[in-house]
Amino acid sequence: MQTEFTEDQEQFREVVARFLQDKSTPLSVREMMASEAGYDKDVWRQLCEEVGVAGTHIPEAFGGFGFGSIELGVVAEEMGKHLYCGPFFSSSVMAAYALLNIANDSSKVKLLPDIAVGKTLATLVLDSLNSPEAVGRQLVVANNSLSGTAAMVLDAHVADLFVIVARAETGLGLYTIHAGAEGVSVDLLETIDQTRKVSRVSFKNATVERIGHVNSESLDRTWDHICVVLAHEMIGGAQHLLETTIDYTKLRYQFGRPIGSFQGLKHRCADLLMEVEIAKAATHHAARCLDAGEGEAYAASMAKALAADTYMKAAREAIQLRGGIGFTWEEDTQLWFKRAKSSEVLMGTPAIHRERMISMMEQQS
Amino acid sequence: MSTDTKSLTSNEAIRAELESWLDENWSPDRSLLAWRDILVDGGWAATGWPLEYYGRGFDRGQVALVHEIFREKGAVGAASVGPRRLASETILAMGNDDQKRRYLRPILTGEHAWCQLFSEPGSGSDLAGLSTKAELIDGKWVINGQKVWNTSAHHADFGILVARTNWDIPKHQGISYFLIDMRQPGVEVRPLKQMNGHASFNEVFMTDAIVPAEDLVGGEGNGWAVATTTLSYERRGAAPTLSGASTSENPQEGLVYDEYREELKIANEPYTWYPQRQGRVDLVMSRAKETGAISDPVIRQEMAKLFCMSKGAVLASQAAEAKRKSGSNEIVPAGSIGKLAASVIARQSAHVHTMISGADAMLSGPTSAEEGMVAEVLISVPAISIAGGTDEIQRNIISERVLGMPKEQRSDTGPFRDIKRNT
Ligand SMILES: Cc1cc2nc3c(=O)[nH]c(=O)nc-3n(C[C@H](O)[C@H](O)[C@H](O)COP(=O)(O)OP(=O)(O)OC[C@H]3O[C@@H](n4cnc5c(N)ncnc54)[C@H](O)[C@@H]3O)c2cc1C
Description:
- The structure holds two protein chains of two kinds.
- Chain A has helices spanning 7-23, 26-34, 41-51, 69-82, 88-102, 105-116, 216-251, 263-292, 299-320, 333-345, 350-364; strands spanning 122-125, 140-142, 145-154, 161-168, 171-178, 184-188, 198-207, 209-213, 253-254, 257-258.
- By secondary structure, chain A is of the alpha+beta class.
- The longest helix of chain A is centred in the middle third of the chain and has 36 residues, at 216-251.
- Chain A is globular.
- The two termini of chain A are 22 Å apart.
- The relative contact order of chain A is 0.11.
- The mean pLDDT of chain A is 97.
- Chain B has a four-stranded mixed beta sheet. In chain B, strands 2-3-7-6 form a four-stranded antiparallel beta sheet, with no helix packed on it.
- Chain B is of the alpha+beta class.
- Chain B has three domains: 5-78 and 242-269, no CATH class; 113-235, Beta Barrel (Butyryl-CoA Dehydrogenase, subunit A, domain 2); 273-402, Butyryl-CoA Dehydrogenase, subunit A, domain 3 (Up-down Bundle), CATH 1.20.140.
- At the A-B interface, α7, β10, α8, α9 and α11 of A face α10, α11, α12 and α14 of B.
- The structure holds flavin-adenine dinucleotide (FAD).
- The site of flavin-adenine dinucleotide (FAD) has 19 residues of chain B, from α14.
- Flavin-adenine dinucleotide binds next to α14 of chain B.
């Protein structure tokens, strides 16, 4: 199993970082937040055409580049740093991983190539974003006719294709339906974190196509894959907050000295660095485990729990150490704070992941 | 020179040479000292040291291979338990040729045990504020003062000592570093009982104790630089460990084994509680299952937090090590971060052990949980955030040297004589 990044991976990181530094500035992030679509189509096209992010982890047979969770994590980490707004997470990560782990081969061949180049925007419709065990209680299929409501679906308002996990008589299945099909309604919801658009999606006797059988193993694996990418996004955000906060404490003067010279603040920053280093290591490790198909079964949940707690801590400290300015709309820190909050609870709170981790460890030992 | 040896010595060549050397020389029927003499003369006692001083200039990987081969053969290695390594590494780095010739060999053979005489009642974190006095009288250094918390001093033949030789200049500049003979009338060692009942550290009183002029290391007034070498070695995690380095895990029959077991029994005595001060994370899952605490959702959450931290800290230190090896110039503060993390982990583990045991956590002794080990965890963990530099000092180091935050304003500049200090 890989234990450090290869030179190629580091170079890839450079490329992604340079692109985002240019195209995902706090100013453009605020524009996207205020826009209905929530992302810049040109930037997305360039990201897909020039950097190739959407197909990073999709096998070459399905039109992608054939890399793995490690490389996808590199992309997500940089996106987290720059608070990228776009369909990467909903389409390239969530929907694509569900297809890769669950769909039958002919559907993969049919659907993945367009997702891999960012032409099709897909999104994964789950009726719970809390835990895999809770999936399949709201969405029900009978005779290829889907009814029920998914309370929260990422980027549904711009998606072309819905990839759905729903319950049928034979158990959970994976289904697809095109946006705009009869019986599908999408309501964009108000959210704390406006960098991630969320909608309620309701189905009423909508005709869906069944493309795979979902068992707990494939759903868990999909969940793990998604959580590890999300963890990367979070450690990227945490790293950004740590760096900008340290910089601020060196510049801001009170009582005739930089506030960064007060030990009460220095010690908190040292603790934060420790947590960020640990969360980063656990997250990188989780991606390596997934790619190698070995290591601890609970590595993904451990990474998600650590990254979420660390990102929130970084976000709280980032605001506290800035004082009043930190609490303003004007200052950018709040953008990361809100992203930290939405990432903390998306796909399972830290407590849920800790419980998941302990049950796995319990069975092992 | 040593780099040449390194590049010319493949792992296969090392294995072939060492195996045939051991076949020819290793015998369990010799006395421990006789065997270690042969070991040192053969150049296999400290292969990471330079050629001129008993070593072969091997890198970490090669040294690990040597240890592996010793273990396979069941052969006893050089003496390594206790603070002796702090002494040998410092002498190797900063001592003169004469000091290396006189002191290194008996460290390896086990003839001399060492202790670290740094902390004082008046200065611990602020080591440079020490006030033990060294005066040059008739060509000899005369030492007066008191040291404290000195682990293994009650077994030690020599000590690495920092003392003040000049009171009229800034505090870091007036310190000198000495090698002191502990077995002399001017040195008195009194064991100190710790809160966990063990007595691994001591008070050391020096009253007109003598250090010959040739046992000053690094020159008069250069003691701070030498002490820093010792401390960085200590924080790199080379602190005393329970078992000898290149030793057999299951000593078998023979005189050398008998003497070796005796040596370990004495040398390890101060360290039997060290695993407990780290929290014994390894016992948590089995204790939770055994007691049924595993079904308590609150305890499960706390256990998971513990495992996240302990596993994550290992991964972080591996990542730092990998970065260091790849020559990245990103500052990787592995030592201080690892030390801080160890404290957090130990405290969380004590917390979890307490939740698991419930009221039983009141009990101690051989009939209590894990033959008293859980109780020992609960009353030993407070040491981890103090020994080897407190957590607060690690946070100062991380924030100033790694994060580059502004330094604390100092009130201890100028001549040492004028600085406010404990009386
Ligand atoms: C088990 C054990 C083994 C030891 N073995 C040895 C040994 O073999 N040889 C040896 O020489 N010493 C040894 N020590 C001593 C150890 O190095 C000191 O105890 C330690 O450095 C702290 O010094 P102190 O006890 O004087 O506490 P102090 O320095 O007085 O600290 C008291 C409190 O003040 C805080 N503090 C001090 N300065 C600052 C600052 N600048 N900023 C913020 N907070 C600060 C400390 O963090 C601590 O919380 C050992 C200690 C223990 C517990």
